Amino acid sequence: MTNQQNVVVPEAREIAVAAAETADSPTPVFPYPLLSKGGGGGDEFSLPDKCLPRLELGGNGGSGRINVWLETMKASSPTRAKEATAAAAISSTPCIADQNEHLSWMMRHPSALSMFDEITSASTGKQIVMFLDYDGTLSPIVNDPERAFMSDAMRGVVREVARYFPTAIVSGRCRDKVYSFVRLAELYYAGSHGMDIKVPAKGSSFKKISGKAVLFQPASKFLPMIDKVYKTLLEATKSTPGAKVENNKFCVSVHFRCVDDNRWLALADRVKSVLKEYPKLRLTPGRKVLEIRPIIKWDKGRAMEFLLESLGFADCNEVLPVYIGDDLSDEDAFKVLRNRRQGLGILVSKVPKETSAFYSLREPSEASFCLSPFLVLLDIFVYAHYITRDT
Ligand SMILES: [Mg+2]
């Protein structure tokens, strides 16, 4: 799966990414059924259409389908009204239908905060490796993506977590940008949806394989194309109030966060028109964002596997990967964990969503206060590790 020619620094060593087929992986620890093969299994790194519809502009997608992923983008970007409905579902005066839907979803994806015993059991004798999305997970979703800062409290907890476990940030952002937000040198970083991975030679005591620094950029040949489409999209969207185009090095994001709802379709049409000239790029929807990425078989799930192998945990039963994220692109990692029958996928969401994650967390990390459920969860991981480290 890994192509040595894609390793772009001379001193980089070859790393074989773990194979997707892990039928003999450890027994799952979860008290509810995993997805069937038809519901997310198999060797291909793709989700069922209803979970992650993609408009392959260079392929057989295209006209007529734009409303499908616009609806998907809206569905993954809960409005305040939807969040209020979700809150009502667990209040004392809920709508019965909403309450039933929410409870049913929570049965399938219980709160990670209620799973202390399971976390403790699953981590016994194993090395936890933590993978964290950034936007909507470590930082709040804000109108200006340039100001998606994480709180000092969150940074402190992540720093503490990284003392115990190898910890990686896996983000759609440019790697340098997400590092400028996190500012923790001891972490691993995978930017551009995993297409820009840096594994430092030094700086982490967890790396089981000693060696040289690794920079893995499987989409490096697309750099000129990405730069060109970024400039074209800037021009094509400048007349839409609130539209923002972000160059994330190996992918481009067109943000809809500040665009009036009644302009979404026209903006999406403009983006689509631009992409017609780039058959080797594809569009994927996210939370109030359209992502433009190279058509390569690489995503956050594969990035997670690459990092596990880089850390020396390939085909290893003594590891417990934990991935926490909030968006459609994180589903690729959740799906890998399901297929491996190993690890914990945790979706951050206030509303029920189709997901391959095992557990859920209601609150994103907009914590300027220290009692955020997210922070409590990370404390649980540290405590579980502490009480099981000698077993
Ligand atoms: Mg996110």
TrEMBL record:
Which branch of life, at top level? Eukaryota
| Annotated catalysed reactions | alpha,alpha-trehalose 6-phosphate + H2O = alpha,alpha-trehalose + phosphate
Which Enzyme Commission number(s) are on file for it? Answer: 3.1.3.12
Which coenzyme or cofactor does it need?
a divalent metal cation
Q: Which GO terms describe its molecular function?
A: trehalose-phosphatase activity
The first-level EC class reads: hydrolase
Which one Pfam family would you cite for this protein? Trehalose_PPase
Hydrolase: present as a keyword of the record?
Answer: yes
Q: Which UniProt keywords apply?
A: Hydrolase
SUPFAM superfamilies in alphabetical order? HAD-like (SSF56784)
Give the metabolic or biological pathway. Answer: Glycan biosynthesis; trehalose biosynthesis
BP terms from Gene Ontology? trehalose biosynthetic process
Q: What does this protein do?
A: Removes the phosphate from trehalose 6-phosphate to produce free trehalose.
Which NCBIfam families does the UniProt entry name for this protein? HAD-SF-IIB, T6PP
Membership in a protein family? Belongs to the trehalose phosphatase family.
Query: Mind telling me what this protein is named?
Result: Trehalose 6-phosphate phosphatase
The species is Platanthera zijinensis
